[in-house]
Design goal:
This protein is α+β, with helices and mostly antiparallel strands and 114 residues long. It has 3 helices and 5 strands. It has helices spanning 5-11, 58-75, 89-92, and strands at 18-21, 25-29, 37-43, 83-85, 101-105. It has a 5-stranded antiparallel β-sheet, with helices on one face. The structure holds guanosine-5'-monophosphate and zinc ion. Residues 5, 14, 16, 28-32, 40, 87, 93-96 line the site of guanosine-5'-monophosphate.
């Protein structure tokens, strides 16, 4: 999608620090980390938010969880654990309108809401 920041990152038009990439998934470091490790994992297909998922997207969403665990293993934080956050829409606090999974790790995370 033309005016989407994360689509521009996928196309390489905006630079990012890539952590993982395959045909349908990209992971890169968040520019403003909220934890020692803060990675954004996104589908390459432009999906606006969780609220815009279509049935055909189910497989890639499942694979994103596998990829996050793979990243955790590679970066050495799988055993200590991590937190995955997806903000959806206005009330969910989503700022970039391209579905993304925040992968947070590297310390015991505070401020639990649930
Ligand atoms: P949201 O609030 O939509 O759930 O999360 C958007 C995230 O994207 C924020 O954590 C923000 O720091 C990150 N972000 C915004 N602009 C950029 C950018 O240009 N590059 C990278 N790597 N992250 C960004
Ligand atoms: Zn996009």
């Amino acid at each position: 999608m033309e005016d989407c920041l994360f689509c521009k990152i996928i196309k390489g038009e905006v630079p990012s620090s890539k952590v993982y990439e395959d045909e349908e998934i990209l992971a890169f470091k968040d520019i403003q980390p909220a934890a020692p490790i803060h990675i954004l994992v996104i589908p390459k297909k432009h999906i606006t938010s969780l609220a815009h998922l279509e049935e055909e997207d189910e497989a890639v969403i499942g694979r994103i969880y596998t990829v996050m665990n793979q990243i955790a293993e590679e970066q050495g934080f799988r055993q200590n654990g991590y937190r995955v956050i997806v903000n959806c829409g206005k009330d969910g606090g989503q700022e970039v309108m391209h579905l993304h999974f925040h992968l947070l790790a590297g310390k015991q995370l505070g401020e639990k809401i649930v």
